[in-house]
Structure formats: C-alpha cells, structure tokens
Amino acid sequence: MRSRKRVLRGVVTSDKMDKTIVVQVERIKTDAILKKRSKTYKKFKAHDESNAAKEGDIVSIVESRPFSKTTRFKLRNIIEKRGS
Length: 84
What we know:
Elements: E1 7-14, E2 20-30, E3 37-47, E4 58-63, E5 71-80
Parallel strand pairs: 3-5
Antiparallel strand pairs: 1-2, 1-4, 2-3, 4-5
C-alpha cells in the first residue's frame, strides 16, 4: 500500500534561489486545556523547475523525493498571483 504525499498551502516568502522557493505555511493550533487558538508558522523549501512562483504568491506544494539537503517538496501549482 502506497502512502499519500503531504500537500501544503502557503505564501512564497523568497524566490531568490535558482529553481527553489521558500514557502511559509500557517497552521492553527488549539490548546488542549485553555482551548485558545494560536497561529504557528513553518517554512519549507520547494523545487520550482520553471521559476514561475514569485514572492507573495499563494502556492500549493507536495512532498517529493529529496532535491537537495533541505529541499523536500515540489511546487504543485500557483493558486493566486500576488506579484510584488
């Protein structure tokens, strides 16, 4: 049985590297006792073969084979263009 790959949605924070983008993913966590909700952020590096995504775009990334030491995701599609 094959496992499903993680699909994440986030905002591109950097596109300065060649064929690599940095995507910031927001997650809402709820405290078990207080029930207070808080936002947490995590950054992922994703492979962008055509350098299509720009800073500020909302993108979808999918888990894939390692492209480098830190790049473990691949750009799936650009959901919304917000070019700066």
